[in-house]
Design brief:
Blueprint lengths: L1 H10 L10 H17 L8
């Protein structure tokens, strides 16, 4: 049963959008974009 609860908790965020500072979400989005760009293989460069 504990495994089921843990897997469900991964689906739902600890906080909702209205509880978070949108600037933090934007910073996270930028960080992820840079991480994704850094992981791009050389033959996929723009």
């Amino acid at each position: 049963m504990r495994e089921k609860v843990e897997s469900v908790s991964k689906i739902f965020p600890e906080t909702t959008e209205d509880e978070r500072d949108p600037r933090e979400d934007q910073n996270e989005d930028r960080r992820r974009e840079e991480e994704i760009k850094g992981d791009r293989p050389p033959h996929h460069n723009e």
